[in-house]
Amino acid sequence: MRRCSEAVSLSERDPRGEAEVLVRKAEDDANAMRLLAGAEISDEIVGFHAQQAVEKWLKAVLGSRGIEFEYTHDLRRLIAEVTTVVGEFPFDNTQVVALTEHAVPLRYGNSWCVSGREQP
User: Fold this and answer.
1) Helix axes 43-64, 75-86, angle to 10 degrees
2) Which residues lie closer than 8 Å to 94 by C-beta, 6 or more apart?
3) Closest CA to 60 of 18, 27, 12
4) Which pairs count as long-range contacts for 93-98, CB under 8 Å and 24+ apart, including other chains?
5) CA–CA separation, 34 vs 20, rounded Å?
């Protein structure tokens, strides 16, 4: 089991180093999603891990290019940033962005509003 020894302060951010950590964490979320998808687990839980994996992989793409990424769960925004950097996004944006509907309410409960903006 890995521990959270990889944390860094914001003033010491290294996007490329963060990208390496994010790829490992995204793989963990993807593995959790695969394992849970075959069990009698709610779509919210499976969707949460799917969204987390995609979010972390998108941030890793940015970080691997030395680009500091925003701390956001907004897949639409992250896809736009990645597309700007690499020129394309090879997946169905609508399906990927739909994962946010499973993940964000699970994390924030009713504090997520329909417009897609996080509430304090």
Assistant:
1) 30
2) none
3) 18
4) 96/54
5) 21
What pTM did the predictor assign?
Answer: 0.77
Tell me the C-alpha distance between 78 and 120, whole Å. Answer: 20
* DSSP H stretches of helix in the chain: 15-37, 43-64, 75-86, 93-108
| Residue appearing with tokens 């609508």 | 94
**Is 99 in contact with 56 (CB distance < 8 Å)?**
no
Calculate ∠ Cα 94-98-99, nearest 5°. 130
Q: Is the pLDDT of residue 105 over 80?
A: no
Domain residue ranges in the chain: 28-109
Residue whose token pair is 């394309």: 88
Q: What is the pLDDT of residues 26-40, one digit of tens each?
A: 999 999 999 999 888
- In a 13 Å sphere around the CA of 120, the CA atoms on its Cβ side amount to 0
- Residue 59's nearest CA partner among 33, 30, 79 is 79
Is residue 69 within 8 Å of residue 62, measured between CB atoms? yes
